[in-house]
From TrEMBL:
<feature type="compositionally biased region" description="Polar residues">
    <location>
        <begin position="51"/>
        <end position="64"/>
    </location>
</feature>
<protein>
    <submittedName>
        <fullName>Uncharacterized protein</fullName>
    </submittedName>
</protein>
<feature type="region of interest" description="Disordered">
    <location>
        <begin position="43"/>
        <end position="64"/>
    </location>
</feature>
Length: 64
């Protein structure tokens, strides 16, 4: 289950990064909302499973 959680966080992080890169193609408010939702989810999951987080992983999403 921990591996699935880490995979989900990595997937969402990738989606967030792609949204940031392609922002000009989408409505800015929608992109901002999606990034915020992803950030909140990743933050919540990180708090639930602090021992599962790999310090070298890219499972953090920065708000823009």
């Amino acid at each position: 289950m921990a591996a699935e959680s880490e995979q989900a966080i990595n997937f969402l992080t990738t989606i967030s990064d792609l949204l940031k890169q392609q922002r000009r193609h989408f409505d800015d408010a929608v992109v901002t909302h999606c990034i915020r939702l992803i950030s909140d989810y990743v933050e919540e999951k990180s708090k639930e499973n602090p021992m599962e987080n790999n310090p070298g992983s890219t499972s953090t999403v920065r708000r823009s």
